[in-house]
Amino acid sequence: MVCGAVQRLWAAAGEWGRVTASRPARFRFAHLGEGACLAFPPGAIFGERCITIDDDTLVGVGVSISAGFVPGQELGPDPIVEIGRRCSIGRGAHIVGHRSVRIGDDVFIAPYSYITDQNHTFDDPSTPIGVQRPVNNPVTIGDGCWLGAGAIVLPGTRLGRNVVVAGGAVVRGTFPDHCVVAGVPARIVRRYRPGHGWQPMPTEREETP
């Protein structure tokens, strides 16, 4: 009896706690499109006035999306975190924006991935790294990309269209359309060539004459 009651209450909380375009919580965001949904319970979500989530995007349970360091921080009038249409963001993923994180349409982000446009510097060896001034570098993830579970996208990353990021990869840099990146640090392991299909990239050993 008690277990059943708890399960019913939790199901009701999931239903009434979710954020959609038809509920008042949408007004916290710069934009929350029709059909978009943030599942309950959420992770840490703040800086909503600088976050846009477009139509039919699903944000899973425990996902954290933040703009700025702390709730209530003044960040200016422009969006900082922009998420496109028909995206899916898996359980426990983190998207942390301070300058600009742009995620295109039809992007699938698997659980526990991490995307950020900011990192600490370590220029001064006499000062703890955690208190050195951080540096921001915009992140762009193109339309149709797929990020595998546990992928990490670091500041300055620019992914083209339909890029596959392997699970657990640590990505930094610019990658073209239609490629597969994997590893730590991530590198291109396959590319699509019109008329030839998906072709493996040679390894460093194979490239050595």
List the helices and strands and how they pair.
Elements: H1 2-17, E1 19-20, E2 31-32, E3 37-38, E4 45-46, E5 51-53, E6 58-59, E7 64-67, E8 81-83, E9 88-89, E10 94-97, E11 101-103, E12 108-109, E13 114-116, E14 118-120, E15 134-136, E16 139-141, E17 146-147, E18 152-153, E19 158-159, E20 164-165, E21 170-171, E22 174-175, E23 179-182, E24 187-193, E25 197-200, H2 204-207
Parallel strand pairs: 2-5, 3-6, 4-7, 5-8, 6-9, 7-10, 8-11, 9-12, 10-13, 11-16, 12-17, 13-18, 16-19, 17-20, 18-21, 19-22, 20-23
Antiparallel strand pairs: 1-3, 14-15, 23-24, 24-25
Protein name: Acyltransferase
Family: Belongs to the transferase hexapeptide repeat family.
GO cellular component, one term: cytosol
Strand order of the largest sheet: 1-3-6-9-12-17-20-23-24-25
Helix content: under 10%
- Sheet with most strands: 10 strands, mixed
Instruction: Find the structural class using helix and strand composition.
Output: mainly beta
State the name of the first-level CATH class: Mainly Beta
Pfam family, one: Hexapep_2
Protein name: Acyltransferase
InterPro entries: Hexapep, Hexapeptide_acetyltransf, Trimer_LpxA-like_sf
GO molecular function, one term: O-acyltransferase activity
